[in-house]
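the two lines:
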Amino acid sequence: MQIYLPIAEISVNIFLILGMGGAVGFLSGVFGVGGGFLMTPILIFIGIPPAVAVATEANQIVASSVSGVLAHWKRGNVDFKMGFALLFGGIIGSSIGVGLFSFLRDLGQLDLVIKLSYVVFLGIIGILMLIESFNSSQRTKKRGLVKLHTHNWMHGLPFKTRFRRSRLYISALLPISIGILVGLLAAIMGVGGGFIMVPAMIYLLGMPTVIVVGTSLFQIIFVTANVTVLQAVNTQTVDVVLALLLLAGGVIGAQIGVRVGMRLQGEQLRGLLALMVLGVCIKIGYDLVVTPVDLYSIGMAGH
Amino acid sequence: MKALKYAFVCFTLLITPLPTSGHELAVDLTKNAVPITASFVGSELMLYGASESSGDILVVVRGPNKDQTVRRKKKSALIWVNDMEVTFLNAPSYYFLASTRPLDDFLSNDTAIIEKIGYSALDLKVKGIVDDDEIIEDFQNALIRNKQKQGLYGQGPGLVSYKGKHLFRTRLKFPANVPVGNYNIDIYDFKNGKIINKESTVLPVQKKGIEAQVYNFAHQHALSYGIMAILIAALAGWLASVMFRKV
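prediction for all of em together
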């Protein structure tokens, strides 16, 4: 059954979109990741204009983060003070990002920048995850020494603030800068940015792991909401019909995924996700390198 | 229904005595609009008519004019990057040409240029200054090639066929990615290489129903649309967490 998307202005198969939402939702349930970094490239593969894919995916992530954060909030696993610091940076970063997005679109380089960002970030994350899953399966044999607290240049920064819930006394500039970077990525790549923020909060800030996911989800809701509104106003590329179809499939997939994920082995799972991330990375990278069938293309119609 | 209407009109045309001038041309479409609804997958309609002279029929369909930017990729280091662009001002977003015989058989160059018939007579204006005519030609060919690939440009001799001596018809195709706007359809009747008659009609291609509402809302009240989009998403997320809490 085909449906015509009012903003993307193409006709797509409803079951394909629902299925994609379900599959990516399932994976995000199993692995505890947002899934934006998989969904946006897949939307582009099936012919959704990249600008629409990025803006619409931001809208969908609002939904998945809301449903995720509620569970964490109930268990008290959200550090709101840290969340607001991240959010402050996130709003700045995503607002700059949306401006950059329109600028690059007018320049004709938007597609390239989206794809390059994907190759770089998916490449780094995929390789790190692969190494980590390999190491952790080694670590079960010999336990390594983990240093809990190290003093370095970051602790000399001004605006020191106490984050009670995270048991940290650090410069507010740190979470704000992380927020800015993640906000930029959210606007340009159509992702929540959890895959950057979570490791940054654990390894860079030294936050306790239990409150990391809830706090990052809290920040993602507002940053992706900001991206959605800014994209709707600046580029008119948010397709609510597409977003609704994706999230209908997504919420169901995610719930099944969570239940399946609890029964699976952690390390192999992580390795599998790493391979998938690298697969998407290689596919996008290959398309950039291989000689196009036609060197000429018609640009997106301006408004 | 379409076939019935076609048959009816053909019948009417047959029994109506033709005037004696010898130049009469009458045309009509099986649909007077192309509505883009939620289930739109493209549309086809019939253009049919009667020519008293039984001349060469030429049908030209032009979609709304828009500025079209064509970009060229170049290999830079390892990857392909857009390095040059040419914008054609007011190029037809849709262009389709159908005729009874190959154009060269009945259409002179002068007529083609005056009436702007055929790709070579599109006469596109370039935005800004591009010195090299060869480059402009390359980009214009690229525009036509890419539009053909999208099913938005096309020309074909033999696509207009006579049924009997005076009745003719042709099929007009609009793919799912058809641009919205008013389409101008010109129908020419040629005899011995001269235009003896011309009819014109307008076919609106418009989003209808929910499609139109969503699109207009997104463009006219962008801020409210954005806020509504996040409210819907937040509500859906909350509903999902409530619904699955006890499963």
